[in-house]
Write a structure and sequence with these properties.
The chain is of the alpha/beta class. Helix content is 37%, strand content 24%. α1 crosses α10 (248-262) and α5 (109-120) packs across α6 (137-148). The longest helix has 15 residues, at 248-262. The protein starts with 9 loop residues before the first strand and ends with a helix. The relative contact order is 0.14.
């Protein structure tokens, strides 16, 4: 049974900077068509100084839901009056909606990434040693759901080791998985990991980084949370003949979770 399409379209959007590359409009249009929902889904380019005003105006104008992408996931979290457990652990949101006049937020990134790895790529996470590159909102958003899959360990490496350590300190009380942190330079003495996840924004700001060969073994899986473009990380992985995926499958999975929040069955 499908919903009866309303005369006036529901309005949703994705907001970020940059935003022209986003595939979210196409993905949500397909979800809406399958459900018989009349949906207008836009891309919104925002600067830091007007982000909060754009969000407020969007919902004041009757908007149904917003997806948040780089670099505003942490900013959006601070605007929320009510948040999910995943959002609170991440201190970042990628999904906004309103309930009873309150701005609500969830973070579907981690659940989307776990679903992509375990179901789309048939890669079980239990018992795996995981490395996450980067310590921004993208990284924080995936730690708790990844830990729920019972990996053997999880390590965060960041340019600034203190930022990675702060994330670990906040997450450790909520899991029994061994969590560690360090700098990107420390990886020169690190063991090989089973799964390496790139959560940095290097692909967007043309920042290149070098990774040592010792962090991968022949069966290491590489996953870049960026999608739709070649990245320095994917290039590094392919040159070492690793099985590598971009973030398209994560995008699809997290988008479906957002859509279900806005349009529950």
């Amino acid at each position: 049974m499908t919903d009866t399409p309303p005369t006036t379209a529901y309005r949703c959007a994705v907001i970020g900077n940059p935003i022209a590359h986003s595939r979210s409009p196409d993905i949500h249009a397909a979800f809406a068509q399958a459900r018989g929902i009349n949906l207008q889904y836009d891309r919104i380019l925002a600067e830091a100084e007007n982000f909060a005003a754009i969000v407020a105006q969007f919902f004041a104008d009757g908007g149904r839901g917003l997806n948040i992408t780089l670099p505003y996931k942490e900013t959006a979290y601070r605007l929320c009056e009510q948040t999910s457990a995943d959002a609170r652990l991440a201190e970042a949101v990628n999904t906004l909606w309103q309930e009873n006049g309150k701005l609500c937020g969830d973070n579907t990134d981690g659940r989307g990434l776990r679903h992509a790895l375990e179901h789309k790529h048939a890669y079980p996470l239990a018992g795996k040693h995981i490395l996450i590159l980067g310590a921004g909102g993208a990284a924080r958003g995936v730690i708790a759901p990844l830990c729920a899959a019972r990996p053997a360990s999880l390590h965060i490496a960041n340019r600034t080791a203190a930022k990675a350590a702060a994330i670990i300190a906040a997450q450790q009380p909520h899991t029994t998985v061994p969590l560690t942190a360090g700098s990107l330079e420390d990886l020169a003495a690190a063991p090989a990991y089973d799964l390496i996840i790139n959560a940095t924004s290097a692909a967007f700001n043309n920042t290149a980084f070098t990774l040592p060969d010792n962090i991968a073994h022949p069966q290491t899986r590489a996953y870049d949370m960026t999608y739709g473009r070649d990245t320095p990380f994917l290039d590094w992985a392919r040159k070492r003949h690793l099985t590598a995926h971009d973030g398209s499958t994560m995008l699809q999975a997290q988008a479906w979770l957002s859509f279900q929040q806005w349009f529950p069955t």
